Amino acid sequence: MNESKSIFETDTSIKFKKLIFSLRGKKVLVIGHVRQDGDCIGAQVALCRCLNAIGAHAQITYDDPIPRVLKPFVGDTPTLSVGDIPNDAFVPITVDCAEAFRCGKTISQRFPTIFLNIDHHHLSNPGYAVHNLVENEAATCAMLAKYFFEGGFPIDKISAQALLLGIAMDTGRFLYPATTADTFSLAAKLVRLGANPAMIDNLVFNNDSIGRIRLLQRFLSSLQMEFNSNVCIGRLSSRDYKEAGAIREDSEGFVTYTRSIQGVKVGVFLDDSLGFLKASLRTDNPAYKVNDFAKQFGGGGHICAAAFNIQQDIDSFYPTLIEKLAEHFKQHNLPVS
Question: Which residue among 53, 154, 226, 238 has the highest number of C-beta atoms inside a 10 angstrom radius?
Fold first, then answer.
């Protein structure tokens, strides 16, 4: 592969190329965030395969099990459970992790210093690694696809499929506001390399377990309308998961139902099944800045999609949520009443 600069390379892709080639012959762990989504898994798989193609010894690792619907996209990519990481010297790289703690407690303790942080959460990522590539992109997979194409890196069929998976999921199947003409251009190039959009549709969006359907019933029945129906809030507890015969990953994407209701400006999903409360927020209107709202609870994300964790249960936190939402709407002069 030609390592010389291409006239089409951006400064960030040049930096990416130099950093990646510095890892030749080294053991590398490509780390994602807890509760992996398609962009996380796609970025891990594609970057790991790229590293191995140029002579590194890379594996992907994870604190949570890879979700059932995403396992087929891993293919023969080398994987290593966090509990099986040997005491060797690894170079840690994070992808799609806005903050270091999002890698999980075990990984954060084992690797307090991250070599490279590649992420598209540009509003909330503080640049916690030695080297940081943080951009305003639709998906981390879109960043990697750009780097690969601009730098002339090899992209095999599994990598192309993984990158398309991440782009498709983080753009809401190319419907979210962050989707641009460049996003479609990257996707087209990946399809030409063998990525199959139908595989994503069949395995991710039309492959529900009966437990997920039963859990969805419970979630939809929990919906509460607040602020004159401008805010919709849904909830799930550990009891809901148990009685539905569902697992954690089965609630992935449920927050979109809260936002999809006519007239709703902000959708919220509250889940306290893990011994703490996870709150996910979505909006179609950037003016509502849900990432700013999440920051006051130690969270973050995108301007239209954010989340935070807090050590409370739903019932005790709910009044605080309503109070803080009212303050947030007033502060930003947002109409919700």
Answer: 226
- Express each pLDDT in 129-175 by its tens digit: 999 999 999 999 999 999 999 999 999 999 999 999 999 999 989 98
CA 237/CA 239 separation, integer angstroms:
5
Q: Which two tokens stand for residue 7?
A: 């006239």
The pLDDT value given to residue 3:
38
CATH number attached to the domain at 210-331 = 3.10.310.30
Cβ contacts of 292-301, under 8 Å, gap ≥ 24: 292/328, 292/332, 293/324, 293/325, 293/328, 295/124, 296/324, 299/124, 300/98, 300/99, 300/121, 300/123, 300/124, 301/98, 301/121, 301/123, 301/124
Q: What residues in the chain have per-residue pLDDT under 50?
A: 1-7
| Eight-class DSSP state of 155 | -
pLDDT at position 44? 98
